Amino acid sequence: MEEKTQAKNQKQEKEIIKRKLDGIVIGDKMNKTIIVAVSRVKIHPKYKKRYKVSRKYKVHDPKDKFKVNDKVSIVACRPLSKDKRWRVIYK
């Protein structure tokens, strides 16, 4: 019986953090919202050249404690508004 509950707890822990990204805060002028730029390196399929691609996400910051140029980790969550589907977990 305990094995089932342990397996269930491990499965729930894996489901909690489905998508986790690291980025840099580039905007904090909105109330309880920050804009985070997430950069990643892609490789061109034919020429094998590496290039950087970045994407901006609107992230929920309930206490307004993150400022521009802070490095943060974000996770996906339920939709909080029209554009916000991410929340900050830590700096």
From TrEMBL:
Part of the 30S ribosomal subunit. One of the primary rRNA binding proteins, it binds specifically to the 5'-end of 16S ribosomal RNA. It comes from Candidatus Falkowbacteria bacterium CG1_02_37_44. The keyword Transmembrane helix does not apply. The keyword Chloroplast does not apply. The lineage of its organism: Bacteria, Candidatus Falkowiibacteriota. This is Small ribosomal subunit protein uS17. Keywords: Ribonucleoprotein, Ribosomal protein, RNA-binding, rRNA-binding. One of its GO terms (cellular component) is cytosolic small ribosomal subunit. One of its GO terms (molecular function) is rRNA binding.
